[in-house]
Amino acid sequence: MLNHERLRAKYLRTVRSESYRMLKRYTDDLLKRAETAQTIGDVQAQAAREIDTVGIELLLTKIYKRVGADFAKLTIKDLNSQKAQRIEIDYWEDYFVSYSRTKLGQKISWIAGTTKQVMEDVVSRLGTIAGTEGWSIATYRNKLQEEFTFMNRYRAERIARTEIMVASNVGTLEGGRNSGIPVKKRWEPIVDQWSRPDHAAMEGVDPIGIDELFNVGGVMMQQPGDEAGGAEHVINCRCGLAIVPDTTYEDILNR
Ligand SMILES: [Zn+2]
Q1: Distance between CA 143 and CA 130 in Å, rounded?
Q2: What is the extent of the structural domain holding 117?
Q3: pLDDT (tens digit per residue) in 186-208
Q4: pLDDT(255) > 90
Q5: Closest alpha carbon to 192 in 140, 232, 236
Q6: What is the Å distance from ligand 1's center to 199 Cα?
Q7: Rounded distance from Cα 234 to ligand 1 centre (Å)
Q8: Centre of ligand 1 from the C-alpha of residue 110, in Å
Q9: Domain count of the fold of the chain
Q10: pLDDT of 253
Q11: How much distance in Å is there from the Cα of 196 to the middle of ligand 1?
């Protein structure tokens, strides 16, 4: 069985800095446009503009292509299915590039929406303080820069941890599906004081069919990180998916 927590850890540093750079590109872009602003209202108008999603798409594709593909391969290797291990070398990278293009639309617009919202909130919150304290426009811009850096660090950490978790579990599921042997899947929570009670309750629940849905406190999910669970089941979740050979008692007796 794969140790998800340990395996995911090796991606964190890189994905965190890639996520930070992605977010910084959006806030830098706003600060650049704010350079010519005469008033706080001008900056607020700039912050209200729609943002493009290119940076977010590129980041997610990179994460899923790397983490998803690695976990699919590791899962197949772990199940020791020689036939499935012979799948073409680039198959999984290609699979996850196309997965990112077709399956992540909702996530991309969600991250874009939050990014815009965070910038608007910071601009407006500091704008109020600027008004009461009588800041110059230059001071206001400096404070915006500081606050954006802080917010970007915090969000980069959360995006990196969450997306590594989702990509690793999707990779594990797809690896299991393509393992060439009959398999089931099991939800593997990390149980500690930070666990969601509904997720911790999945501990010890019997494996289900690879295409069946887990009932997570009344919410049906394909695997940990499944978008169907909504943000409240996905953000900062640390659960893993285990793929187990679907061996019957009869099979064991016949060995
Ligand atoms: Zn969880």
Answers
A1: 9
A2: 4-180
A3: 999 999 999 999 999 999 999 99
A4: no
A5: 236
A6: 5
A7: 7
A8: 20
A9: 1
A10: 66
A11: 6
